[in-house]
Amino acid sequence: MTMVIGIGNDFGSDDAAGLIAVQHLRGVVGNHVRILEQSGDGTQLIESWKNREKVVLIDAALSDKAPGTIHRFEVDTFPLPGKFLCYSTHQLGVSEAIELARALKQLPRSLIVFAIEGKYFGPGKGLSPEVAQSIPVLVDQVKREVEK
Amino acid sequence: MSKAKNSRTLKVDVLARVEGEGALYVKIQENKVADVQLKIFEPPRFFEAFLRGRAYTEVPDITARICGICPIAYMMSACHAMENAIGIKVEGQLRELRRLIYCGEWIESHGLHVFMLHAPDFLGYEDAIQMAKDHQDIVNLGLQLKKVGNEIVSFLGGREIHPINVRVGGFYKVPRKSDFKLLVEKIKWAQDASLEALEWLKKLPFPDFEQDYEFVSLRHSEEYPFNEGRLVSSKGLDIAISEFGNHIVEEHVSYTHALHSVIKGRGSYFTGPLARYNLNFDRLPPEVKEAARSAGLGATCRNPFKSIIVRTVEILYALTEAIRIIENYEQPSQPAIKAPPCKAVGYGCTEAPRGSLYHRYRIDCAGNVLDANIVPPTAQNQKQIEKDLWEFIPSHMNLSDEKLTRQCEQAIRNYDPCISCATHFLQLKIERV
User: Considering the entire predicted model, what is its pTM?
Assistant: First the structure.
């Protein structure tokens, strides 16, 4: 069964983008896709994707691209670039979880990461307009990914 | 990193594998340590200030947000302080369930620190990811152990991080006896796994290092301490929790956002698993004592690097205690006892994974918080961590800057510092002049 994991913090403004994207995804993909919302704790991620064939992660990102920009990485073959998604309030973030699972041979056969560029990550509810505008595009890309 | 004549400067700008943001600065002059500063630059979080005006019933859930690793500790210290204030005592099966959820937090927190954060130091790996390439089995075992802790917390707390089922007076909902079945199997597996981990850990290379520490922890008349007891030390402190402020003072230090704690007239002290073990070895069940001995520990252990073994002994203890509680469990008729407010001051101190966590609250007759004081274990250990480095560095001066820096970080991680808690607290910089 395919799994999509949205990662973020509901109270961290644009950090909620991954959670909001999977909430939208729920209505547009079939029951063959299992959808989870998580905080990004690496050990929990590894446990969730264990023995899965195909997993998609959606998280917010902060690099030098314009807010709302959508990134796509096939991390079953290569690590996430540089310091992407390495920041976490937990000791083991998304990037570390992927590499730890690779070392432990516990990566899904296919692991795709979608990261949406955020603008503001301070305390608060709601997405920046640029990020909110990109959510339907992101949802559509993930839908096509899981239906491949 | 810089070197002038007779001088060395080692810098680590952001300390890895600790919870939160901080740094260490070490200055070495004429081959002698001239300064050690543990700097906690994670911004102050003003929890004590914004608790004012909030209801006594909200405090466990608000203070749980201080830490994603040890929310249960905050909830428990807050509950006990409030219950102390309003004059009620949670006993029987509700008290047992509190011990059980605390078992889960110790297993989860210690599991993460022992296998993911601290073990790589002993074998010279950059991190757990590098260690996992050569030691796949032990890293896997560590992850599974941690998971058992998470499952206990979410079973009783409603979710793993920032649980929602703990309240002043008890819980919102309590499990049926039959609900524990699946959990028991996993806990029994974890007991065997922790014994296996002890066999692996005892073979690690440990630096020969110890100091004349004053260990401080709770001590209970019968139990290895979680929620209750007097605060005692290896140098004669023996006080009720309400006397905490008369004996332990917090000091502002200019270079850090976290307050330093000292025992009046004596100075720094050491709280956490090593302190608990040394002051409460006699309270461990025989099978856990035996496992500790098999892992090379005596009834006392003064080498902070061996805290990695002690933490694992505490994991085994928490698993053993969890089984005991589950086997004797009878569902209480009510999930909580009545907890009406009154104008009062309350004190609570429980044993967080990193050490004693003290709370004091003054509430009005409606139960609103008038003022609050929270003293987390990492803040209490800060001064002791600096003292360890003052003593550790001189005997390791022959090491390269890189190796010395790495060993200093390892020495800091002996305390499993939680910077987020301490600021409610790492970068490392060593300067040789």
Answer: 0.91
B432 backbone dihedrals φ, ψ, rounded to 5°? -105, 115
pLDDT at B50: 87
Q: Tokens for A91?
A: 């000791």
* Residues with pLDDT less than 70, chain B: 1-6, 9-21, 41-44, 419-433
In order, the DSSP letters of A93-135 are -HHHHHHHHHHTT---SEEEEEEEE-S--SSBSS--HHHHHHH
Beta strands in chain A (DSSP E): 2-7, 33-38, 54-61, 70-74, 110-117
Q: Residue B131: what are its φ and ψ, rounded to 5°?
A: -65, -35
Q: Is residue B32 one of the residues assigned to a domain?
A: no
> Are B416 and B394 contacting, i.e. CB atoms less than 8 angstroms apart?
no
Give how many domains chain B has, as a whole number: 1
Task: Name the strand (E) or helix (H) holding B219.
Answer: strand B215-219
Q: What residues of chain A lie within 8 A of the CB of B42, using their CB? A: none
In terms of phi and psi (left: phi > 0; alpha: psi -120 to 50; beta: otherwise), the region of A73 is: beta
A101 to chain B, minimum CA–CA distance in Å? Answer: 8
User: What pLDDT, on the 0 to 100 scale, is given for residue B159?
Assistant: 82
Burial B327-363 (b: 16+ CB within 10 A, else e): eebeebeebbbebebeebebbbbbbbbbbbbbbbbbb
Residue B314 to residue B107: CA distance in whole angstroms: 8
Q: Among B116, B130, B147, select the one facing A47 at the smallest CB separation.
A: B147
What is the rounded CA–CA span in Å between residue B63 and residue B359?
A: 10
- How far is Cα A54 from Cα A146, in angstroms, rounded to an integer? 8
* A·B CB contacts under 8 A: 47
User: Does B59 map to a domain?
Assistant: yes
A79 band by pLDDT with thresholds 50, 70 and 90: confident
CA B84 to chain centre: 23
Note whether residue B140 is domain-resident: yes
Residue B146 — φ and ψ, nearest 5°? -55, -40
* DSSP label of B335: S
With a cut of 90, say whether residue A78 has pLDDT above it. Answer: no
Within a 10 A sphere around the Cβ of B183, how many other Cβ atoms? 20
Cβ neighbour number for residue B167 with a 10 Å cutoff? 18
Residue of B nearest to A38 (CA): B161
pLDDT in tens, B155-211: 999 987 789 999 999 999 999 999 999 999 999 999 999 999 999 999 999 999 999
Give dist(CA B311, CA B114) in Å, integer: 7
Chain B residues in contact with A91 by the CB 8 A cut-off are: 17-19, 112, 116-117
| ipTM field | 0.84
Residue B129, domain member (yes or no): yes
CATH code for the part of the protein at A2-146:
3.40.50.1450
Distance from CA of A43 to the nearest CA of B (A): 7
Both tokens of B245, joined, read 């402020």
Measured CA to CA, the distance from residue B372 to residue B59 in angstroms comes to 10
Question: Coil, helix or strand for B319?
Answer: helix
Cβ-nearest to A39 among B17, B139, B161? B161
Domain residues for the domain of B120 are 47-380
